[in-house]
Structure formats: structure tokens, C-alpha cells
Amino acid sequence: MNCGTHNGKPLLILTANAAWNVYSRRNLIRALQGAGFSVFGMGAAGSMTGTKRKAGGAKPAQQDEYTRRLEEELGVPFFPLPMMEGDGTNPCKDMALFFTFLRVYRKYRPAAVLHFNNKPDIYGSMAASLCRIPSFNNITGLGAAAEKTGLTGKIVYRLYKTAFRSPKAFVFFQNRDDREFFISRALCPPERTEILPGSGVDTVFFSPDSGAAEPFSLQKSGPCFLFLGRLLASKGCGDFIQAAETVKRKHPEARFLLAGEHNPENPAFLPRETLEQALSAGTVEWAGVQKDVRPCIRNADCVVLPSYYREGVPRVLLEAAAMGKALIAADCPGTREPVEDGVNGFLCEPRNPENLAEKMSAWISLPETEKIRMQKASRRTAETRFSDKLVADAYIRQLSAFCSPAPSAP
């Protein structure tokens, strides 16, 4: 096969919804480079995907901290894409995105393209198909797509089916439920799919001894439960607060920490009043957005994610497991993957704060030896099942079927 090259190496273009999401896969990029590929990046820059820009507002920046890191730390040239609203349905914006993919792919003729998140998966894969370029698409969770019904649902499923019908389109899934969802609806052929261990986790960067610095004060008088992520209703943030209220009646020494973005102007987030009341009552503490999440995780005893949003495999659970923390997660697609009930944590019923409170109380009541056993089991799970090295190996194995990488430098 005649592969597109850059500096004498097969060229790969890796696209995610935002520059930070491309950079978060830096270990995959390094592995691809080490295997003899040259990598370019694409995504939105200047703002996090999913935050809609008000009419007449400033256009997104063409560079941000993560585009610079990609270029300076990894030597990855970055192409800015128009802002992508992950669940947006504006056909004009989507058409513009598709033609951007088409223009870039026709210009650079990459050997293969790697897509992450729904818009790149759909419109990037369509463009690659027209250019007869192999595409490797990663379903990082279905999110709202799983709940689409009626005409909207038919359109979304038709788009996926069109994107993945090319014989050069390969689809990675992060959990078995999402793969079954696609195959049962004939959205992609099963022989061109593979299940990955989520996005994987760097078990060196995230280890029980990492993140020693404390960005906030935590009294060690009682157990600390951590909710880490955007304070979205669909991620079970409200359930976490309600469960905390219940647990505190019996265990007033317990502490409940929130860490992550809160945008009260976005109706998908926890209402401002709910958060303010919980903070005023002392039910929870809020550490805000953390650039380095390791200190938060290290200071916690148990990491909780009662999300009923269709996740791939939540990165926070993998990072917490790698740092040797017990996990409590909703028994839902994606969130259940890294949790072995009773072994390294507990599974709770989704949308059920009472059941979540029972699981938290059950963890508090465990003997110290059992808590230590769970923590060790989490670390072992991260190392053996969810290491990002497993993800890189899968990509390199599938890519080798389409084009041979250049020999690595001695």
C-alpha cells in the first residue's frame, strides 16, 4: 500500500474533540513514534469541547497550552479545528467540520487516521473513506447518543453506520456494552472491531506514591470520599451529595470532597443552589478544578463515580485504581468495567443515592485489613488490565496490517 509519509515515516493524524484530549494520549503518541510513525494532531484549541460559545462571542483560539505542549514536548504539529460541540446538532457546523477533515486529509494523504470522540469518529471517518485512507475510530462512550430516539436517533445511527461502512474503517470500543450496542444495530461489522481497556492509564505517573503535595488541607480524623470530574448531573454529582447527607448522620467524621469544573450557566451541570447549600451545610467540600489530580486522589480514601452517563471507561476510575484507591461506581456500562464488586470496591445502583450511601457506609465499616486488601486489588487491576501500554500495543498491531512503520532509530 502507498502510505503517506512525513520525514520518511508513515504519517498518522490523531484527532480528538480538543487539544487537551489529544495531549492526554501522549503515551500513545510516544509509542507510535517509537514504532516508526510520524504523528500530527488535530482538535479544537482554546476551550474545552462542550462549552457552547455565545452568539457574537470571540472565536476560539488557534493555540493553547496543550497545542504548545504537543509541539514542544512531543514534536507533534497541530491543526486547529472549528469548535466542536460534542452533542451539538447544528448541521452547518457539522458540515464545516466534515469539509475541514476532507481538506486536511486530501492535502497530507496520511497513511492512516486515528479518531477519538463522536464528531471525529463520524465526520473524520467519512472524510477518510472518501480519500480511501484507513481510519481507526475510538468510541470513548456513547453519552447522549445512547438515549437518542425518534428522528434524531435515526439520524445519529445512520451517521455512524455511514461512517463505519468503509472496509478501511476499524472501530475500537472501550467496553463490551458499547460494542454490543453498535453491533446489535448493525452500525459496524463485528470483524472490524476490538475492545480496549478504556483509554488506559499511565501506571508510573499514577502510582500510590505520586502526588505527594497537598493543594488543600484535609483533616485525617475520618474517611474521605472523592468525586472527581465535571459536576454534571449525569455523572451522579447530585447523588453523591445526597448520599453524603445520609452517611454523615451516622458517620459525622466522614468527609466528602468534590473536585472539578462547575458551570452553573450550563443546565447539564449541578444547579448553583444545590452546590451552595451543600457547601454551606458542610456536607461537602469543593476543591475546584485541579490541573494535577494526583494530590486529590492521594488525599482521598475512596473514589466515587455514580455516573449514569454512557462512559467508555472513566479515566478518573483508572487513575484512582492505579493510585491504589478503593472504588465505588455505578453499575452502568463503562463505570462498572474497572470495579470488581467486593474485591477492589463496590458497585451501586445508578440514580439511587440511598444505595450509594449504603455502599459508602459499608466501606467505612470494613476492617482496616479489608480496606488495604481492596486498595492493593485496585492497583493490581490497573497494572494488569488497564495499563496504557495495552492500548498502544493494540493500535500498533492493527496499524501494522495497513502499512509498515519506518525502522526505529538505534
From TrEMBL:
Pfam families: Glycos_transf_1. Signal peptide: none annotated. Residues 219-373 form the Glycosyl transferase family domain. GO terms for molecular function: glycosyltransferase activity. InterPro entries: Glyco_trans_1. This is Glycosyltransferase family 4 protein. The lineage of its organism: Bacteria, Pseudomonadati, Spirochaetota, Spirochaetia, Spirochaetales.
